[in-house]
Design a protein that fits this description.
The complex is a heterodimer of chains A (134) and B (376). By secondary structure, chain A is mainly α. Chain A has 7 helices and 4 strands, in the order H-H-H-H-H-E-E-E-E-H-H. Chain A has a single domain (23-130), classed as Cytochrome c-like domain (Cytochrome Bc1 Complex, Chain D, domain 2), CATH 1.10.760.10. In chain A, 51% of the residues lie in helices and 7% in strands. In chain A, strands 1-4 form a two-stranded antiparallel ribbon. In chain A, helix 2 crosses helix 6 and helix 5 packs across helix 6. Chain A is elongated, with a radius of gyration of 18 Å. With 376 residues, chain B is mainly β. Chain B has a domain at 78-260: Neuraminidase. Chain B is 6% helix and 41% strand. Chain B has 2 helices and 25 strands. In chain B, strand 3 and strand 4 form a beta hairpin. The longest helix of chain B is centred in the first third of the chain and has 18 residues, at 4-21. Chain B is globular and about 60 Å long. The chains are: A mainly alpha (134), B mainly beta (376). Chains A and B meet through helix 2 of A and loops of B.
Chain lengths: 134, 376
């Protein structure tokens, strides 16, 4: 009986590590903040407001809210070309930062839930993994 | 009289603070642009480093890990690069043509590398020979140790002095409390090597036990501008400060430039780093910028092409998207002027063999600056 219990435990552990339970949203946001402070803050600034006309804002950004997939793609592969954010045009380059999918998910969760931004649900690693280069 | 007192006190305070903050001339706006630009090569997103092989040929690094040979308006990818770790501000960084290139075909470059132990990467200096469009005899001459997954502060610029040494920079790798003040660790340093990668025995910390013997100076944050002064032969370096406090330093052996014990800047969040602006034993900068311009690349103009620029310094500004002219007289910055305002984020600035100034601009490529012919 004891042996059966061990087998049960081991297989449960194996199953859990296979499905990789998602981080909590709180953990993802706090990991994302660290990524933000390292990779993003120089241009988008600590308050997420960016520099009008040069670096688009993330705080209360209509582009971000309405283009989740394109925003993930921009972080994952880099972004260039004209976009309009809160009525102002931006035509710069954001070079790809070399972040792995988990880091992209974390920083997305951070920016989607900071500076007054509120987002339902959570960006998952698999959601980032699915976004392909255009 | 009583009512006047607070007012005069405020005036006194303004007087005091304005004096304390005066450290050089205000930047002046560009007056009726006297220069036009001509595209030398386009289609390079982040032209990080530029150097000239000859009048008509140059090497250009693209940060994402491509080395281009540019000649007569065409670019060819050079093969044979090592693996480049693109992470945050890291990637393929500076390139420098050896003074002996005509006979040796030797080039040097810096890049982020995952070599060595631990996750992440650090800045490495390489040499190779350029044969046609291929690098051969690739050698890693130096590699910063203790890899880090941080995306910040890899440096890196390269310069040669008049005595046969090569200098290069590595930034503090986003670990300012640990790296820049510790000479047993890499990061936050200017390094000096012989051209074959060996360490000169008269390096300042060569005999210091446990030290990184290649270190020439320390206490740097993130130097992304370096050159040999055309007259004195001294190595000039500029570095990104935090918010405020970008610096120009003239590098001396074994000197400590103070980061983060002293700085004129504050954290990006607005919180202070230190109240100290100077401390005994720490070098003061030749010049510092408040607010930060985010300097990248620099060159002295020595030709007759731009009379007002002669023997003055040109520095690219990533942040304000102009070229800054610093007029230097009697070893002091006397005037500052915006040039080509709105041109874009300038990554590198070089004087070509023709005496014209070339700039690498993000999203544009390489441009050369041509004086406008006088109006008749």
């Amino acid at each position: 009986m004891k042996q059966l219990f061990y087998i049960y435990c081991i297989s449960l552990f194996g199953f859990l590590s296979y499905v990789q339970p998602q981080k909590t949203i709180e953990k993802s946001i706090s990991d994302g903040k660290e990524i933000y402070q390292d990779f993003c803050v120089q241009c988008h600034l600590d308050n997420g407001k960016g520099v009008p006309g040069t670096f688009p804002p993330l705080a209360k950004s209509d582009y971000l809210q309405n283009n989740i997939e394109a925003s993930i793609r921009g972080i994952k592969y880099g972004q260039r070309g004209k976009i309009t954010v809160n009525g102002i045009d931006y035509d710069g380059i954001m070079s790809h930062q070399g972040l792995v999918d988990e880091e992209v998910a974390d920083v997305m969760n951070y920016i989607l839930n900071s500076w007054g931004n509120v987002t339902k649900g959570q960006i998952s690693i698999s959601q980032v993994a699915e976004v392909q280069k255009k | 009289m009583k009512k006047l007192r607070p007012l005069s006190f405020i005036c006194y305070l303004i007087f005091l603070t304005s004096c304390a903050q005066y450290h050089g001339p205000e930047i002046q706006d560009e007056q009726s642009p006297k220069y036009i630009t001509k595209t030398v090569i386009d289609g390079i997103d982040i032209p990080w480093g530029i150097d000239f092989i000859s009048q008509n040929e140059m090497l250009v690094t693209e940060k994402s890990g491509i080395l281009y040979k540019v000649s007569d308006g065409n670019k060819t990818e050079v093969s044979g690069l090592p693996e480049v770790y693109v992470r945050g501000q890291g990637g393929l960084l500076d390139v420098a043509i050896a003074p002996s290139f005509k006979t040796s075909k030797l080039i040097f470059f810096t890049a982020s590398s995952t070599d060595g132990e631990g996750p992440g990467g650090h800045t490495a200096l390489y040499s190779a020979q350029l044969k046609g469009d291929t690098l051969v005899n690739l050698k890693q001459l130096y590699k910063g140790e203790e890899n880090s997954k941080k995306g910040q502060h890899w440096g890196s610029r390269i310069a040669f002095d008049n005595n046969g040494f090569i200098y290069f920079s590595i930034g503090d790798r986003g670990n300012r409390e640990v790296n820049p003040q510790d000479i047993t660790r890499d990061g936050g340093k200017i390094y000096r090597l012989n051209l074959d990668g060996s360490i000169p025995t008269d390096n300042p910390f060569y005999n210091e036990k446990g030290s990184k013997k290649a270190i020439y100076s320390f206490g740097h944050r993130n130097p992304q501008g370096m050159l040999k002064h055309p007259e004195t032969g001294a190595i000039w370096v500029h570095e990104h400060g935090p918010r405020g406090g970008d610096e120009i330093n003239i590098i001396g052996a074994g000197k400590n430039y103070g980061w983060p014990k002293i700085t004129f800047g504050i954290n990006y969040s607005g919180t202070p780093i230190t109240n100290d602006r100077d401390l005994p034993g720490l070098e003061q900068p030749f010049y510092y910028w408040v607010p930060s311009i985010a300097p990248s690349g620099m060159a002295f103009s020595t030709s007759e092409n731009y009379p007002k620029w002669k023997n003055n310094l040109l520095v690219g500004s990533l942040k304000f998207e102009y070229l800054e002219l610093l007029v230097i007289k009697n070893n002091k910055v006397r005037e500052r002027h915006k040039v080509l305002e709105g041109i874009g984020r300038i990554r590198d600035v070089k004087q070509g063999p023709d005496g014209l100034i070339y700039i690498g601009v993000e999203g544009k490529g390489i441009l050369k600056i041509i004086p406008k012919p006088p109006m008749n």
